[in-house]
Write a structure and sequence with these properties.
The chain is an alpha+beta fold and 397 residues long. The chain has twelve helices and five strands. The chain has three domains: 129 residues, no CATH class; 60 residues; 122 residues, 2-Layer Sandwich (Heat Shock Protein 90). A hairpin with a 5-residue loop joins strand 4 and strand 5. Helix 6 runs antiparallel to helix 7. The protein starts with 17 loop residues before the first helix and ends in a 7-residue tail after the last strand.
Length: 397
């Protein structure tokens, strides 16, 4: 077994900072909205009231508003909402209803606009609509005793419904645009990786062709020249001539240099996957990617090289799409007689790993080159995909 050198490059700074995520323009607008509503609905006199029941109710309402904005901050700090748990948004909606029940300010329901903007990104359309209808029904139930008629109640709720729908549509299209941007970034990275692999394939073909030409043509001619010079050196009339001796030495030196060049070219036979993997890990919004490749590691066959590259590509896609990973680590080494490619992420681990089209295709590619596929969890969270190809079929640099 060859001990892999630990030359892992640092995590690429693909992710925005915590402060940048927390204070985007939309998030700042949300904080300002919360502050304006809170100042409007909190009654300073009730906070200092002598009546314990009145005092306690008002402070409980304040606590509900503070808890709601705390959850909003947690949601805003996540990577474009990808890691926000659904319970967070559910709790925000319930806290808004609770604050309205306790404070009875009316304006508290404006905060449901913030809930709608977040919920549309996390729930299916049907679940989102049902949840928002339930929240608004709860608000209507609280308001029904404060209005003279159902018509007045609906008239009061209509602007709130409109703003919620506007916020939901804005969030939906913003989320669609973000997903499209991430998809294009992944496609671009995959195309760059494929181009790097094709470039490496072309270079490998040129190196092989050049080494063969040098060996077969120049090497053959120089060997013939050396044989002729050796015959001249056996002639007593020419054996002592300096020209013959110098020519023989030059021929020996030139043949040695050609053999050294051919050896160097042969040492670089095969495919170096570093450039292709680097291209595959091009900046993806919200993700940190580290690549660790053993020095001088090369793969002989283009099919094997492409198999390892496609396995890395599929594992990265799954980590982002299903695991919502924030950090991915790719490693390629020679371990226990095999080329071992591992892709580990810190994403959400599914309760059950199903072999869909992606994983099935990955396993079929590996089977075709005699390789194996292993998938394991990495506590406390995350998943590791490991692809192995026997080293007997690969180039041992």
């Amino acid at each position: 077994m060859t001990t892999p050198p630990r030359t892992c490059q640092p995590l690429q700074p693909h992710d925005s900072s915590y402060a940048q995520r927390l204070f985007t323009p939309l998030n700042i607008a949300g904080y300002v909205t919360w502050l304006a509503v809170s100042l409007a609905v909190i009654d300073q006199d009730k906070l200092r009231a002598a009546d314990p029941a009145l005092w306690l109710r008002e402070w409980a309402g304040v606590a509900a508003l503070v808890a709601m904005v705390a959850l909003l901050v947690v949601s805003a700090s996540r990577r474009a909402g990808h890691d926000t748990p659904r319970w967070n948004v559910v709790a925000q909606g319930l806290l808004v209803v609770l604050a309205e029940w306790l404070l009875r300010g009316g304006q508290t329901t404006v905060l449901l606009i913030l809930v709608a903007a977040q919920g549309v990104l996390l729930f299916s359309t049907r679940t989102f609509v049902l949840y928002m209808v339930a929240l608004n029904a709860a608000i209507a139930a609280l308001w029904i005793g404060r209005t003279d008629s159902i018509f007045d109640l609906l008239l009061s709720l209509l602007p709130i419904f409109g703003f919620q729908a506007f916020a939901a549509l804005t969030g939906h299209y913003a989320g669609s645009r973000e997903r499209a941007r991430e998809h294009l970034a992944r496609i671009n990275a995959e195309l760059l990786a494929t181009r790097r692999l094709l470039e490496e394939s072309a270079r490998a073909g040129e190196r092989l062709k050049l080494s063969r030409e040098l060996h077969d043509v120049a090497g053959h001619s120089l060997t013939a020249l050396k044989l002729n010079l050796a015959r001249l050196a056996r002639d007593p009339a020419l054996a002592a001539r300096e020209e013959v001796l110098v020519s023989s030495a030059l021929a020996d030196d030139l043949l040695g240099q050609i053999r050294q060049v051919v050896g160097t070219l042969r040492a670089h036979d095969g495919f170096d996957l570093r450039a292709a993997l680097d291209a595959l890990a091009q900046p993806i919004p919200g993700v940190r990617i580290a690549i660790d490749i053993e020095d001088d590691l090369r793969v002989d066959d283009i099919e094997q090289a492409e198999t390892l590259l496609r396995c890395a590509q599929e594992a990265i896609t799954n980590a982002l799409r299903h695991g919502r990973a924030g950090a991915i680590r790719i490693a390629l080494h020679r371990i226990d007689g095999a080329l071992t490619l591992s892709i580990a992420n810190d994403g959400v681990v599914p309760a059950r790993i199903d072999f869909g089209n992606g994983l099935t295709g990955m396993r079929e590619r590996l089977d075709a080159v005699g390789g194996t596929l292993d998938i394991a969890t990495t506590p406390p969270r995350g998943l590791q995909v490991t692809a192995r190809i026997p080293l007997a079929q690969a180039h041992a640099a």
